[in-house]
Design a protein that fits this description.
Shape: extended
Order of helices and strands: HHH
Radius of gyration: 17 Å
Protein name: BrxE family protein
Low-confidence stretches: none
Oligomer: single chain
Largest sheet: none
InterPro entries: BrxE
Number of helices: 3
Length: 96
């Protein structure tokens, strides 16, 4: 019979999942706040109800992932154009 507690490896996976979830939530929040209808940091409307209606027939159940990718790309382009790609203090890119 298997023990109820997590092994060390399983514990790391759970922690990694929680970290990934936190990163995605943060990106979603910043993406929403930066959209044209909110703070107008970038001129996109990926998270608006209209985008959902437009993307659902194309992406189906993956439309939420497409919307998140779109808003992250919009933020990345604005960020890179203002700060530059060679800057070591980039916020949007995780692969520094």
């Amino acid at each position: 019979m298997r023990e109820q507690s997590l092994t060390e490896n399983e514990g790391r996976l759970v922690a990694a999942d929680a970290t990934l979830s936190d990163i995605l939530t943060l990106r979603l929040c910043v993406g929403y706040l930066g959209e044209k209808e909110q703070s107008d940091w970038w001129a996109s409307l990926w998270l608006s109800p209209h985008a959902s209606a437009f993307l659902s027939p194309i992406y189906g159940s993956r439309s939420d992932a497409a919307r998140l990718s779109g808003v992250i790309e919009s933020a990345r382009r604005v960020h890179d154009s203002r700060i530059g790609m060679a800057c070591p203090h980039r916020v949007i890119h995780m692969e520094c």
